[in-house]
Amino acid sequence: MKxxxxxxxxxxxxxxxxxxxxxxxxxxxxTIKAFQKKISVAIWTGQWSSSKRAQQQSRYxxxxxxxxxLKFYSDLPQHSxxxxxxxxxxxxxxxxxxxKSGAIDSPKCPYYRTNETVEHFLLQCRRFIDERxxxxxxxxxxxxxxxx
Length: 148
Description:
Elements: H1 9-21, H2 29-49, H3 52-57, H4 67-74, H5 78-89, H6 95-100, H7 118-124, H8 129-139
């Protein structure tokens, strides 16, 4: 249940307790909003850090979603953001995911006969040899492509 500060009841009680511990109640709406934001970010950070998705994503990107991420995504079309997010979370319509959800009979890549995972799709699949070669040329011939 939310109250006038926009916080749920338990968070609101922690907010008031913390302010009392500092020896003063907030004097402005801006102070309340700033403190509410700090609490929300701290709670979200704790929840994200302990989530299964964060553990999976940390294999490739150890930074929490941040302002840098927001800037990166803000310059892209929505469909591109969607695909990148699907690849990061592994909820993408590759055969391994489709097989787990029961939509198809095999997780194998039709071109390579190994499981069609994100790693396989981006780094190994024979369908995309030319695209990976173009990327290597653009990055510099000696650049090793990896997901870290």
